Amino acid sequence: MSFFQKLKDKFSKSTDNVTEKFKDGLSKTRNNFANKVNDLVARYRKVDEDFFEELEEILIQADVGFNTVMELIDELKMEVKRKNISDPTEVQSAISEKLVEIYQSGEKTTGHINIQEDSLTVILFVGVNGVGKTTTIGKLAHMYKQQGKNVILAAGDTFRAGAIDQLEVWGNRVGVDVVKHSEGSDPAAVMFDAIQSARAKSADILLCDTAGRLQNKVNLMNELEKVKRVIEREIPGAPHEVLLVLDATTGQNALLQAKTFKEVTNVSGIVLTKLDGTAKGGIVLAIRNELNIPVKFVGLGEKMDDLQAFDPEKYVYGLFSTIIEKEAE
Ligand SMILES: Nc1nc2c(ncn2[C@@H]2O[C@H](COP(=O)(O)OP(=O)(O)OP(=O)(O)O)[C@@H](O)[C@H]2O)c(=O)[nH]1
Ligand SMILES: [Mg+2]
């Protein structure tokens, strides 16, 4: 059975709206990337060097990342030889299978969130300005609240005017408490209070907002260190996740941001926002493969339920859905 057929069996009749979210959110990338691949296989009669060269170009344009593309093309060439594939349309299914394999082949790190079952879980969000930290916290608070968890938000961005209000708007919308100090105050002190408050209210999950940091602003990086230190001191083993938020529309620049943050703090996972806003959704693979940090959540729109746990199979289904649904009828 082809991989397309497998994905079709698994997802095309699924009624959960998660698959739909991936399909909708990836429509720009699908129109760009998958359609180009489709054109390519329609133009070639056999799978030769020229075919692979064009495919390489398409993948690079989709922001898959140079190293990842090279790996993918090598693997595909081997697969084509091994399975004796000569028909380009069969290659399409093989490409999608390799995309999932490449995503999953990294270290043991998974998309699982390190939730403490019997005690407070602290999740710290970091990233440069405007990537979607505050919005992601709002969406995640909603998701956990839906699961019956008691959630509290910490307004750790005391730097940008309006940041505290923005988090409060989310708190009201979702119906969770926000711990805040005044603008310009010490974010580490906000975290300290938020932890005390979370304990007093037996909260399950504390989501901590931080100021957008430009990598070169040494003082802001130092501030982040201090915030982490306070959390660690109050709760050994915390923060249980440090999620780096990256904006998918910034492409390869997102990779550079990730490399910088990785140097100064222990990033445990990535939230890749605004996938719905880019035609270059291949960036998911580049991030996973070149940084070896798992993508734990993806932002597929601006609404409250547009944040989804990342699932490589649903992602690839979203990328190729029009072809998959037609192909294997
Ligand atoms: N389309 C789309 N927009 C998003 C997504 N996530 C966030 N946004 C938008 O991105 C903009 C910036 O989001 P914020 O949450 O304020 O970003 P931030 O990282 O907190 O920014 P600073 O507080 O300035 O550091 C907002 O307009 C959000 O609605 C997403 O997944 N898709
Ligand atoms: Mg913010």
Automatic annotation (TrEMBL):
InterPro entries the record matches: AAA+_ATPase, P-loop_NTPase, Signal_recog_particl_SRP54_hlx, SR_rcpt_FtsY, SRP/SRP_N, SRP54_GTPase_dom, SRP54_N_sf
Residue ranges of every copy of the SRP54-type proteins GTP-binding domain listed in the record: 294-307
Taxonomic superkingdom: Bacteria
Record keywords, A-Z: Cell membrane, Cytoplasm, GTP-binding, Hydrolase, Membrane, Nucleotide-binding, Receptor
Membrane topology value: Peripheral membrane protein
Protein's UniProt keywords contain rRNA processing: no
One Gene Ontology CC term in the entry: plasma membrane
GO biological process: SRP-dependent cotranslational protein targeting to membrane
Enzyme's top EC category: hydrolase
SUPFAM superfamilies, alphabetized: Domain of the SRP/SRP receptor G-proteins (SSF47364), P-loop containing nucleoside triphosphate hydrolases (SSF52540)
Catalytic activity: GTP + H2O = GDP + phosphate + H(+)
UniProt main location, coarse: membrane
EC number: 3.6.5.4
GO molecular function: GTP binding; GTPase activity; signal recognition particle binding
Residues binding GTP, per UniProt: 127-134, 209-213, 273-276
Pfam name, any one: SRP54
Protein localization: Cell membrane; Cytoplasm
Family: Belongs to the GTP-binding SRP family. FtsY subfamily.
Protein's job: Involved in targeting and insertion of nascent membrane proteins into the cytoplasmic membrane. Acts as a receptor for the complex formed by the signal recognition particle (SRP) and the ribosome-nascent chain (RNC).
Subunit relationships: Part of the signal recognition particle protein translocation system, which is composed of SRP and FtsY.
Name under which the protein is recorded: Signal recognition particle receptor FtsY
Lineage: Bacteria, Bacillati, Bacillota, Bacilli, Bacillales
